[in-house]
Amino acid sequence: MLKRIHVHDLTLGMFIHEFCGSWMEHPFWRTRFLLTSAQDLQRIRATTIQEVWIDTTRGRDTAAGAAAVTRDQASADAQALLEQSQQLAAQAAAPPLAPTTMAQELQQAIAICSGTRAAVADMFHAARMGQAVDVAATPRLVDGISASMARNPHALISLARLKTANEYTYMHSVAVCALMVALARQIGLDEATTRLAGQAGLLHDLGKARVPQQLLDKPGKLTDAEFDVVRRHPVAGNELLAGSGLHPQVLDACLHHHEKIDGSGYPHRQAGAGISLLARMAAVCDVYDAITSDRPYKRGWDPALALHRMAEWSRSHFDNLLFQAFVKAIGIYPVGALVRLQSERLGVVVAQSEGALLAPHVKVFFSTRTGRRIPEELVDLAQQRAGDRIAAREDPRHWPFGDLAQLWSGRPSLRW
Asked: Per its UniProt record, what InterPro entries does this chain match (predicted)?
């Protein structure tokens, strides 16, 4: 049985199934192992991870009276939190339809991603060379991303998630900028503050220019000393941006985007309302893009699975209202998510349905009954006549599909 316990209740002989948090928060290259080392136990307790999943069939169980949550309970709670977003969406007035389709916007989004990525790379290069970082162009870069998302709110976000491990650092900045803009608009921030949110997303990881590249690209586990170096990047970024003329809200979000709502984050262990709005927003956007992206040491999670895991962590990691707004902005089943329908067909999400987060537009292409590809069909699950619904999310790693990006984008190649 899988049980979620606090790290203080973790003892030697337990089998760790999963850490309750993203892999950016701990130095272990593996997440499933029998805990036999007192040093490893101490290292786990020294991280910002507060809870872990243990498998009682493969190791020791919890002591009598120790607080624990089963996977079924946690999954039900997470699904309830996600579905609250659906209820909020149903109560809200539907926004106007996007003026361009995904296919129409992708070409412009590719050019915007390419230009913004190059600008971010220049800023990182200047920082590595000890030169002053010129942030004067960031408002214009954010405006370009904002304009693309106004035309179609999902094209650029979906595109920016498709990054190789070699370009992760730069494209991650582009993706978090786009996600910050989407979240800012979802919660009704004015355009000036939305631009600040986008700037924070674009610059939040600049401090990684002070982290040796071999640590960022290391395929195995980090030593404690190496992990400490990586975790200093928010402070390093704050030092690099000091005197740049950026708005204080942007500087604060860059410094505090790894703080957690329960006070267990870093660098200053801020908690609750003590964390600024933009920093709380950046915490959500940063984690989502990180865990859905391929890294040298970890395959990215499917978008729908990532949201489900984040919902499980939300009580300690994130501002719940902001997380719900984030889900509402990108969808419970984001574009690119692989899903199984009740009709025993698999499909990839290609667009959202306004006010119906559980019923997106899906391109079906595979039958689990026959185990074969079928003619592609676009299904709008929000239409009653569709006669189908999502039964479960699917992990693409369990299926031999190499063309999911092509299926949702309609393009044979996506490069910037």
From this structure: DUF3391, HD/PDEase_dom, HD_GYP_dom, HDIG_dom
Q: Which two tokens stand for residue 318?
A: 């994130």
pTM, entire model: 0.81
What residue has token string 């600049």? 206
Measured CA to CA, the distance from residue 224 to residue 43 in angstroms comes to 8
What span, in angstroms and rounded, lies between the C-alpha atoms of 374 and 366?
A: 5
Residue 181's nearest CA partner among 149, 212, 204, 218 is 149
Contacts of 195 (CB under 8 A, 6+ apart): 139, 142, 143, 146
Which of 158, 140, 112 minimizes the C-alpha distance to 331?
Answer: 158
Chain-centroid distance, C-alpha 348: 18
**C-alpha–C-alpha distance, residues 214 and 412, integer Å:** 33
Residues whose CB is less than 8 angstroms from the CB of residue 408 and which lie 6 or more positions away in sequence, other chains included: 102, 158, 335, 336, 348, 349, 350, 363
pLDDT at 51: 85
d(CA 161, CA 294): 9
Taking only the tens place, the pLDDT of each residue in 197-244 is 999 999 999 999 999 989 988 887 788 899 899 999 999 999 999 999
Cα dist from 1 to 27, 73, 185, 395, 405, whole Å: 26, 12, 42, 21, 35
Cα–Cα distance, 156 to 416 (Å, whole number): 11
In whole angstroms, what is the distance from residue 391 CA to residue 381 CA?
12
Cis peptide before 267 (omega within 30 of 0): yes
- Rg (the chain; Cα; Å): 21
CB atoms within 10 A of CB 159: 28
Q: What is the mean pLDDT of the chain?
A: 87
